[in-house]
Amino acid sequence: MSAVVLDGKATRDEVFVDLKERVDKLRDVGVTPGLGTILVGDDPGSQAYVRGKHNDCAKVGIASIRKDLPADITTEQLNAAIDELNADPGCTGYIVQLPLPKHLDENAALERIDPEKDADGLHPINLGRLVLDGAGTGTSALPCTPRGILHLLRRYDVPVRGAHVVVVGRGVTVGRPIGLLLTRRTENATVTLCHTGTRDLAAEVSRADIVIAAAGVPGLITAAMVKPGAAVIDVGVSRTADGLVGDVAQDVWDVAGHVSPNPGGVGPLTRAFLLANVVERAEAALVRA
Ligand SMILES: Nc1nc2c(c(=O)[nH]1)N[C@@H](CN(C=O)c1ccc(C(=O)N[C@@H](CCC(=O)O)C(=O)O)cc1)CN2
């Protein structure tokens, strides 16, 4: 069996066509959405991600506001940068690129972002609204990577309603929030969250209709674990001497029904839905005006 490729780049391009049309309409009425980014330090991976996000903005007509700060900044200096973007009328939404240097408190930084400008959808208030929003009709920004994963599954007609989804990894950007999205009444999946404390990972994964690998452990998910025909989403990213490596071993492609490549799968959609969150915040502000 050769798995169907869940092509994130082609899917991203489709999302961009829609976003550019919406941005053009906003510009026609004098509204230019703006994405802000705060990048602390010089981690090459984070620099590449932020560069990619701003390149994407140029493709769809969203303005860019970049704040690149040195790794040794103080909490007060980071807070000042966050407060500036909270107050900047040209900034529709923004992100604090994660991870931050160890001396800075990530949770405190995320909580300082104005929830109405939270382009990541990771602010506690927006995640809390997701918890409360059983019907899946909320208007808060949704976490970009979980949103991108759901879009990719729907784009390739992978059944989600009633599916047993096993998530591997409990990180802030994917593992923890994805279950909130998939267990909404609009998706109705059953989600198991596995992590380093899980006793028998292989047994849990073997029961999955959909596996979401977001642990950042190269080759963690192997063919022996995966139920034949299951969909496998590879989100984990590890930078090795061989470059970017995902969590899913190559042999999984022989048994799975669908696999998202990494790179080339969820990553581009993470960026696409970051922009979608910015556009939706601008559209919502226009409706309120
Ligand atoms: N504030 C945030 N920080 C981080 C997030 C996030 O959602 N919000 N997620 C990850 C990294 N990430 C977003 O910043 C991210 C991961 C991957 C990609 C991407 O486009 N990957 C490409 C390959 C890119 C390359 O070649 O370097 C792909 O998969 O094809 C974009 C963004 C942690 N931080």
TrEMBL record:
Belongs to the tetrahydrofolate dehydrogenase/cyclohydrolase family. It comes from Gordonia rubripertincta. It comes from the Bacteria. HAMAP family: THF_DHG_CYH (MF_01576). Homodimer. Its EC number is 1.5.1.5, 3.5.4.9. Pfam families: THF_DHG_CYH (PF00763), THF_DHG_CYH_C (PF02882). Pathway: One-carbon metabolism; tetrahydrofolate interconversion. The gene is folD. This is Bifunctional protein FolD. SUPFAM superfamilies: Aminoacid dehydrogenase-like, N-terminal domain, NAD(P)-binding Rossmann-fold domains. Keywords: Amino-acid biosynthesis, Histidine biosynthesis, Hydrolase, Methionine biosynthesis, Multifunctional enzyme, NADP, One-carbon metabolism, Oxidoreductase, Purine biosynthesis. The keyword Amino-acid biosynthesis applies. NADP(+) binds at G169, R170, G171, V237. Catalyzes the oxidation of 5,10-methylenetetrahydrofolate to 5,10-methenyltetrahydrofolate and then the hydrolysis of 5,10-methenyltetrahydrofolate to 10-formyltetrahydrofolate. Transmembrane segments: none annotated. It catalyses: (6R)-5,10-methenyltetrahydrofolate + H2O = (6R)-10-formyltetrahydrofolate + H(+); (6R)-5,10-methylene-5,6,7,8-tetrahydrofolate + NADP(+) = (6R)-5,10-methenyltetrahydrofolate + NADPH. Residues 143-284 form the Tetrahydrofolate dehydrogenase/cyclohydrolase NAD(P)-binding domain. The keyword Hydrolase applies. Residues 6-120 form the Tetrahydrofolate dehydrogenase/cyclohydrolase catalytic domain.
